[in-house]
């Protein structure tokens, strides 16, 4: 059975519909790109899948569990233990060092500081960030910061990594480096990936693309072009 199944999701903000019947199935190990014009509902869909937002109607199932009807505390636990997140503008804590940022999800999960930092450290070599672990994250370049954000999203070994325009703030070469690292690292540890992008070059890294238009989804199966 599918790892994620969303059926007929509807979301309105102040009476204005953002999702009007969006459905999506994601198999374990898939890299799925949610594409579509600005304002079409991509982020809203991602937020519903990731347990950040509760839809007004429809159902979200993850690993056989219905998650949209869980209370806020259970959704919070699910997000922490099962999901990882990467956003467009890294959203690192600028006063913390890069390694403290990567360790944050582990600390929030109850890991002790020394153990969390020890688990964070190997990600620096893996993502080409050697020597930057003690740097304040406010002093990193855009591409470095986004790789640190990627490490933070993957450090818990999440079942699903949700990425919302992970390359949106980067130039195209840096963006492709981040996508290469994202896809390789996720596959290596068996994390399924759901990403939102409006860039075809980024979507080309996915096994499958889902198009959102005016709050409705239509799947488009494509060959994987990137590597
Ligand atoms: P996309 O990610 O495709 O750009 P979004 O999902 O961010 O689209 O937004 C879909 C629509 O819902 C847009 O019209 C947007 O302005 C609106 N919207 C999204 N989030 C909110 C919110 N928290 N409050 C009010 N309107 C929102
Ligand atoms: P993205 O680039 O990922 O689509 P947005 O710029 O659409 O992100 O939205 C960033 C944040 O602001 C999201 O949490 C979204 O829910 C919220 N948001 C988007 N549109 C509106 C809106 N019209 N009113 C209030 N909040 C919004």
Automatic annotation (TrEMBL):
SUPFAM superfamilies: P-loop containing nucleoside triphosphate hydrolases (SSF52540). One of its GO terms (cellular component) is plasma membrane. InterPro entries: AAA+_ATPase, ABC_transporter-like_ATP-bd, ABC_transporter-like_CS, ABC_transpr_LolD-like, MacB-like_ATP-bd, P-loop_NTPase. One of its GO terms (molecular function) is ATP hydrolysis activity. It comes from the Bacteria. Residues 4-225 form the ABC transporter domain. Transmembrane segments: none annotated. Keywords: ATP-binding, Nucleotide-binding, Transport. PANTHER family: ABC TRANSPORTER RELATED, IMPORT ATP-BINDING PROTEIN. This is ABC transporter related protein.
């Amino acid at each position: 059975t599918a790892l994620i199944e969303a059926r007929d999701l509807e979301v309105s903000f102040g009476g204005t519909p953002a999702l009007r019947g969006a459905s999506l199935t994601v198999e374990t190990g898939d890299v799925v790109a949610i594409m579509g014009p600005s304002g079409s509902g991509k982020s809203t869909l991602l937020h519903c899948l990731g347990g950040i937002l509760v839809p007004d109607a429809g159902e979200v199932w993850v690993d056989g569990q219905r998650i949209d009807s869980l209370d806020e505390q259970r959704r919070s636990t699910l997000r922490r233990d099962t999901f990882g997140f990467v956003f467009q503008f890294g959203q690192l804590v600028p006063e913390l060092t890069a390694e403290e940022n990567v360790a944050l999800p582990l600390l929030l999960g109850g890991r002790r500081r020394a153990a969390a930092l020890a688990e964070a450290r190997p990600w620096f070599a893996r993502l080409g960030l050697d020597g930057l672990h003690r740097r304040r994250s406010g002093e990193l370049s855009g591409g470095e910061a986004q790789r640190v954000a990627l490490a933070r999203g993957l450090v818990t070994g999440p079942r699903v990594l949700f990425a919302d325009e992970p390359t949106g703030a980067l130039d195209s070469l840096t963006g492709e480096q981040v996508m290469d690292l994202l896809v390789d690292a996720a596959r290596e540890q068996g994390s399924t990936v759901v990403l939102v992008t409006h860039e075809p070059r980024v979507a080309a890294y996915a096994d499958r693309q889902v198009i959102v238009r005016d709050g409705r989804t239509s799947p488009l199966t494509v060959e994987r072009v990137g590597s």
